[in-house]
Design brief:
alpha+beta, Rossmann fold, Immunoglobulin-like, 5 domains, 8-stranded mixed beta sheet, 11 helices, about 25% strand
Length: about 525
């Protein structure tokens, strides 16, 4: 347990990176699903089997490039479109119910011959119709309220003028102080993780022939996209001329089928990977839909900062300048001559500026020697990198050190092993250490001790039955004797039986306590043996 606690404390003491920014909290909602469909050809008569493969491979390659670690900032217009589409779907469902109830009411004239029953049935149907009409009116009212809720945010995001006084119709809105104004129901900015359709870039969305013929803006196409839970669809057209290909792509955002500006890339038909990478790079701002973030990287100590090398997502950037990247998860690596390399992955989103501070640790190299407290032939394995055999002639194993703790294994000639741990304080160049490692099958040992503990516990429980019986009878006889209803010999007999039973139970209890302690010691021996300074 000490080992785990030490590691936990050192993690916080030696944190690699400290991220400093104004507001560390931002909202993540559901996943934002990105899909692609098979591209089409701008020219007719060229759709042979080879070209058809290109039409499927290109969107798959593009999706591979843009999906990983992306975060989308959902605009207010997109949130509005989602809510309006949900209301529209509800209205259509209500209208179908209204149509059904009207037809049912009209058919009552033919199905009901009794005037009183007819009148009652018509009244019931009209109540149902009235209820549905009320729900439709509420839906239409909700549409207007939803538009008003997002109107301010949409205007601000589009850089348009928004008349605050015209829309502030509540008491607080008419006050002159901004901090007193009340904005009810105003939309909140949310971020969503970009994920692939079916979590697989090779899975393309295939709309029905009818929806494909009607186009992306049709209700049928929107319905199929909504059923597949897709938020954006990548579509494109291909033009082939000899060995060269032109690819024009755009993103459709659903619901609503709003489209991004077209992106066109030209390249060699034999190098589709480069074409897809260039297209993906241009699509990323549309997918992220957020202002790029700036990252400032501060390196300490000063000696490390002078020779520091910084890379973001594998690309080397100037160490002393601010880096501009799209919002999302990025990997930052900092290295310097004579210092350990440090790497962190973080979701840079929710703010437009981040400061990343890192304190590099000096690179410590050296060697130490380690021996067993009780000599045995075997091999030491250190950090899964170094191995060093020991025997009667070579008692000391050698291990390289770099200023970090060492976790190793000693394995004897019979194949039994034991974990060892060398703390950071002792993992220093030139140290001579010893460790009391006991290689044996710990799983079998723990299982054996557990069975013994359960056996002792079972004996203890079983012994309590006669103990309770004899003690109870002795108590009853003693009370009867005191009342003059029992003889003295009978009382003495049950007293003797109760003493015997109590003795057995006490012995079983002591046995159980002993076996439980042995079991706890056996379970504790799975922890690594700690190395100590050799005296």
């Amino acid at each position: 347990m000490d080992f785990a606690v030490d590691k936990f404390i050192k993690f916080f003491k030696n944190s690699v990176f400290v991220l400093v920014f104004c507001c560390p909290f931002f909202v993540f909602a559901d996943d934002w699903v990105l899909a692609g469909q098979k591209f089409t050809f701008a020219q007719k008569g060229i759709e042979n089997s080879s070209n058809a493969k290109i039409a499927s491979v290109l969107p798959q390659l593009i999706l591979e490039q843009i999906a990983e670690n992306s975060i989308r900032s959902v605009s207010s217009q997109e949130q509005l479109d989602r809510e309006l589409y949900a209301l529209q779907t509800e209205r259509l469902s209500l209208f179908l119910q209204l149509s059904k109830e009207n037809k049912t009411r009209d058919s009552l004239v033919l199905s009901k011959t009794n005037p009183r029953e007819l009148k009652k049935a018509i009244r019931e149907e009209e109540e149902k119709i009235s209820e549905i009409e009320k729900k439709i009116d509420e839906n239409l009212s909700a549409v207007q309220k939803t538009k008003e809720k997002y109107s301010r945010q949409i205007a601000l995001e589009n850089g348009e003028f928004f008349d605050e006084k015209k829309h502030d119709d509540n008491f607080f809105g008419k006050l002159p102080f901004a901090f007193m104004k009340k904005k009810e129901g105003e939309s909140k900015k949310i971020n969503e993780n970009v994920v692939l359709y079916k979590n697989d870039p090779s899975s393309l969305f295939s709309p029905s022939e009818n929806a494909l013929a009607l186009g992306e803006e049709s209700f049928s196409f929107n319905s199929e996209i909504s059923a597949a839970k897709i938020n954006a669809l990548l579509a494109g057209k291909i033009a082939l001329y000899g060995e060269y290909v032109s690819v024009t792509v755009k993103l459709y955002f659903f619901p609503g089928a709003a489209s991004s500006p077209e992106i066109t890339e030209v390249g060699n038909a034999n190098d589709l990977v480069s074409i897809s990478q260039n297209i993906a790079r241009n699509l990323m701002p549309e997918i992220a839909n957020s202002v790029p973030v700036k990252i400032k990287i501060e390196i300490e100590p000063e000696q490390a900062a002078k020779s520091g090398i910084v890379s973001v997502d594998g690309v080397i950037v100037p160490a002393k300048e601010e880096v501009v990247v799209n919002a999302g998860v990025h990997s930052i690596t900092v290295s310097a001559n004579g210092f350990e390399k440090q790497t962190v992955n973080y979701a840079f989103a929710g703010e437009d500026f981040f400061t990343v501070k890192t304190t590099l640790r000096p690179l410590v190299m050296g060697n130490l020697e380690l021996c067993l407290k009780k000599m045995a032939k075997g091999v030491f394995y250190f950090n899964a990198l170094d191995s060093s055999p020991v025997d009667e002639e070579n008692r000391f194993a050698a291990s390289t050190v770099n200023g970090r703790p060492i976790l190793g294994i000693f394995e004897n000639s019979e194949g039994e092993s034991a974990f060892i741990y060398i703390s950071e304080k002792l993992a220093q160049d030139g140290n001579i250490l010893s460790v009391n490692a006991k290689p044996y099958d710990r799983e079998k040992h723990i299982d054996r001790q557990r069975r013994r503990m359960y056996t002792a516990y079972s004996v203890l429980i079983c012994s309590l039955v006669p103990t309770f019986f004899t003690v109870g009878n002795f108590t009853a006889m003693n009370n009867s004797y005191a009342a003059g209803r029992a003889n003295f010999d009978e009382v003495k007999k049950w007293q003797k039986y109760s003493y015997y039973s109590i003795g057995v139970s006490c012995t079983a209890g002591a046995w159980f306590a002993f076996e439980m302690v042995r079991y706890l010691f056996a379970a504790n021996e799975v922890l690594p043996a700690r190395a100590v300074q050799k005296k």
